[in-house]
Amino acid sequence: MYAAIGIVVLIVMVFGGFAITGGALGPVLEAIPHEMLIIGGAAVASLITGNSLHGLKAIGGCFAKIFKGPQHTKQDHIDAIVLTTRLMKLLRTEGPVALESHVTEPASSAIFAEFPRLLANKPLVALIADTLTLIVVSSGTLEVHAVEEVMDNALKTHFHEVHEPQHALQNLADALPALGIVAAVLGVVKTMGSIDKPPAILGGMIGSALVGTFMGVLLAYGMVSPLAGRLKQVIEADEQIFHAVKQVIIASLHGWPQPLVVEGARSGLGHDVRPGLSELLDALRGR
Question: Is 34 exposed, middle or buried (0-12, 13-18, 19+ CB in 10 A)?
Fold first, then answer.
C-alpha cells in the first residue's frame, strides 16, 4: 500500500511543483505519450530479451509482493517454529519410523494439517519435509554439519530464484535514464529535420525531446528503483521463516534443550514478526 502512496506523492509533487512554479503542463503532457512509447517499448523489449518466460512471469507476479508486503505474519513464524519443533521432538522421542509418514507425505500428516497456511507454502514445506526425510532414510546417522550444508545449499538456490525479479527491476532502473536519452536524441533528430520551422515550433519540439530524458530519469530513480528496493525488503522479510526452521532443525540435532532451540530461532526474526519467548513457549505447550 505504501508503494502506491509513494507513487501518487511522487507524481503530485513533481508535476504539481512544476505547475506551481509557472511551468506549463500542457506541452509536457502532450509529449509524454510519444516519449513513453519509445521508452516503455524499449524497456519492455529489454526485459523480454534478458529473461525467460518463467522469469517474465516472476517479474509480473512480483508487483503483488511489492504492494501487499511480506507474505508471512507473526503467527506464521510462531507456527513454523512450533511445527518444526514438534517434528523434531517426535524424531527424538519415537524415532525415524514414527516421523516418516509425516515428512514423506506432508499433505496427509495430522501434524502438518494443524497449520494450513504453512502447508500451502510449498517451498517451506519442501525444506522441512526433504530435510527430515533425509534424516529418516539415513536412520539418524548423518552428521549435523552435513545436514546444515544441504539445507544451506537448498536455501541458496531458492533465494537466488526468488531474487531474480528484483535484480531484473534494478537492471531496468539502471537502464531507464539511457533509454530516456535515446528518446531525447530521436526527438532532436526530428527537430533538426524541421530546422526551417519558426522558433516557436522548434522550441516546442526541443521541449518534447527533453521530456524523454526527464521521463527516463523520473521512472528510474522515482519509481522503478524504489520498487526494486521495496521488493528486496519484502523478499528478505519472507526469508526469515526459512532461517527459523533451519535453526530449529540444526539446534535440535545438536541436542540443545527445547527452550534454547526456540530462542535461537526466535532471536533471528525481525522485531515486527518476532514473538516473545513466553508467547512462543506457550504456543508449544498448546495454550
Answer: middle
Rounded CA-CA distance 34/25 in Å is 15
* Domain contains 110: yes
Q: What is the pLDDT of residues 244-284, one digit of tens each?
A: 999 999 999 999 998 899 999 999 999 999 999 888 888 88
How far is residue 263's CA from residue 156's CA, in Å, rounded to a whole number?
Answer: 24
- Residue 35 lies in domain: 27-287
Q: Within a domain: residue 255? A: yes
Number of domains in the chain: 1
Task: Assess if residue 213 is contained within a domain.
Answer: yes
With respect to residue 4, please indicate whether it lies within any of the assigned structural domains.
no
pLDDT digits (tens, 9 = 90+) for 219-255: 999 999 999 999 999 999 999 999 999 999 999 999 9
Q: What is the grid cell recorded at 177?
A: 535514464
- Over the chain, what HEC string results? CHHHHHHHHHHHHHHHHHHHCCCCHHHHHHHHHHHHHHHHHHHHHHHHHHCCHHHHHHHHHHHHHHHHCCCCCHHHHHHHHHHHHHHHHHHHHHCHHHHHHHHHCHHHCHHHHCCHHHHCCHHHHHHHHHHHHHHHHCCCCCCHHHHHHHHHHHHHHHHHHHHHHHHHHHHHHHHHHHHHHHHHHHHHHHHHCCCCCCHHHHHHHHHHHHHHHHHHHHHHHHHHHHHHHHHHHHHHHHHHHHHHHHHHHHHHHCCCCHHHHHHHHHCCCCCCCCCCHHHHHHHHCCC
